[in-house]
Specification:
Blueprint (H helix, E strand, L loop, with lengths): L3 H10 L22 H5 L17 H13 L3 E5 L2 H13 L5 E5 L4 H10 L2 E5 L2 E2 L7 E2 L2 H10 L8 E4 L10 H10 L4 E4 L22 E4 L1 H4 L7 E5 L8 H11 L6 H15 L2 H18 L5 E3 L5 E5 L7 H10 L6 E2 L3 E5 L6 H13 L23 H5 L3 E5 L12 E3 L4 E4 L7 H9 L4 E5 L1
Parallel strand pairs: 2-3, 2-6, 6-7, 7-8
Antiparallel strand pairs: 1-9, 4-5, 8-9, 10-11, 11-13, 12-13, 14-17, 15-16
Helix pairs in contact: 1-10, 3-10, 4-5, 4-9, 6-7
Length: 447
């Protein structure tokens, strides 16, 4: 497979051309000369380098290579992460209706898109598990109920997140069938699941019936931070392919990073060659850790590259376990009151897994069993659109004194930026309890 972006950068770096163009470092490391090659490859849209949002040269060629690897109708690069992809997907689909059905474990990028585009999210709630707002089961039946409930609003699409932050994978096939029964496209935030296309049996949303999805390439593939894919399937969104770049340009920088794009270009070659075997090895290592620690730890989720520990049965909070792992040289991805999450990739080594296994085995657990707190997810009433609330006059109040007030902005668990309350929603007693559980003691509300 070719690597047109990287090849161009390599040839340009070696050409000796006078760089009478941006960026200001001119391809030189002016600090200590150790990073000269890195700076040489960082360019702007010069002659021959193509342009991300009007691609018809080397970037277009690389995107088509990646599309073939993933088996999509089209794949587009983002140097602005999945956030840019989410914004573009919603902009492309919600042109005729501002309402869309959305799973409540959506990322903050969806909340911000509602503000930027004036959209109205019609929430479908999950069956929450293990006392966490960031994960839960979203079923085809729940999506069907939501479609029927919000039919009068003529929603433009259904948008869900899968896998979620704790590693729960939704029934994409079943949900897509329900969506298509009603003529609605299914959009999926697959930020954590770029690698799912390369399992022995693909679990990638596009292959299971999703019409569009985004992958954060940098989260689970060897791509620089900020690299993401926007995939379009052969279904209801295929006709939007000519519009996608135009929508991405609404939100993306006019100076996207060529270093990020080059890393995606090189990653495509890796995906087409040895990645599947490396992925298989990694998944087996994680599965082996779970087997060895079965009965000692309780694991959650079904995503192959996540090790999510439900900490309470150990007599620890997720925060406690995370701190103990840090003391053993293991930095985790996420922790909250109930869970600790570790993420791995095909770049993880045998030594990494051995260190994680030893660290988990060495944790001294109290001789108690913590009881999970009672958990009930609030379903607050929306008094106004997120855009209206975001730009209204506001003030900051103590969380415990905010009951009955309207949230001025989305308040999220960060990471992973999942909303507890959304801009424009009325804060109730249940919401206040959840906010306090996540140590959020102040909130911005409308005056």
């Amino acid at each position: 497979m070719t690597t047109p972006i990287f090849d161009f950068l390599e040839q340009y770096a070696a050409s000796g051309t006078v760089r009478a163009h941006m960026p200001g470092h001119k391809g030189r490391d002016v600090f200590d000369k150790d990073l000269e090659q890195l700076f040489q490859y960082d360019i702007t849209e010069i002659n021959g380098a193509d342009s991300l949002f009007e691609a018809d040269g080397i970037i277009s060629e690389s995107e088509k290579n990646t599309s073939r690897i993933f088996g999509t109708a089209a794949t587009f690069y983002s140097a602005g992460g999945s956030t840019l992809c989410i914004q573009a997907m919603l902009a492309a689909v919600c042109g005729k209706s501002s309402a869309f059905i959305c799973g409540r474990t959506a990322h903050k990028a969806v909340m911000n898109s509602c503000v930027l585009l004036g959209l109205e999210p019609c929430w479908v709630y999950h069956e929450y598990e293990k006392g966490s707002v960031v994960s839960g089961e979203i079923t085809p039946e729940a999506v069907r109920t939501a479609i029927q409930e919000y039919a009068s609003k003529k929603p433009a699409c259904v948008f869900i997140t899968s896998p979620d932050y704790l590693g729960k994978i939704a029934d994409i096939k079943g949900i897509s069938e329900v969506c298509h029964e009603y003529g609605l496209p299914l959009l999926v935030d697959n930020a954590h699941g770029a690698y799912l296309a390369f399992l022995k049996q693909s679990l990638h949303p596009i292959h299971l019936g999703a019409d569009m999805c985004c992958d954060s390439a940098h989260k689970t593939l060897p791509v620089l931070t900020g690299g993401a894919y926007l995939h379009v399937g052969d279904g209801l969104c295929r006709g939007l392919i000519p519009e996608i770049k135009r929508c991405m340009a609404l939100f993306g920088s006019s100076s996207p990073s060529y270093l990020i794009m080059a890393s995606m270009d090189l990653c495509g070659k890796y995906l087409s060659e040895s990645f599947r075997e490396d992925l298989r090895r990694t998944a087996e290592k994680i599965s082996e850790i779970k087997k060895q620690l079965c009965g000692v730890y309780s694991f959650y989720g079904d995503e192959p590259l996540k090790l999510t520990v439900y900490a309470f049965p150990c007599g620890l909070t997720g925060y406690d376990l995370a701190e103990r792992l840090r003391e053993k040289g293991v930095e985790i991805e996420y922790a909250d009151l109930t869970h600790t999450v570790m993420m791995f990739s095909a770049a993880s080594t045998d030594e990494d897994f051995e260190k994680v296994l030893l660290a988990l085995k060495s944790v001294r657990m109290p001789r108690i069993r913590l009881v999970p707190p009672d958990f009930e997810m609030s379903k607050p009433i929306a008094e106004m659109l997120p855009r209206e609330a975001f730009f209204a006059e506001r003030e900051t109040v103590q969380t415990e004194k905010s009951v009955g007030r309207i949230a001025a902005e989305a308040v999220t668990v960060c990471p992973p930026c999942v909303p507890i309350i959304m801009a424009g929603e009325v804060i109730d007693e249940i919401t206040i309890k959840i906010l306090k559980n996540y140590s959020i003691f102040q909130i911005n509300v409308l005056k």
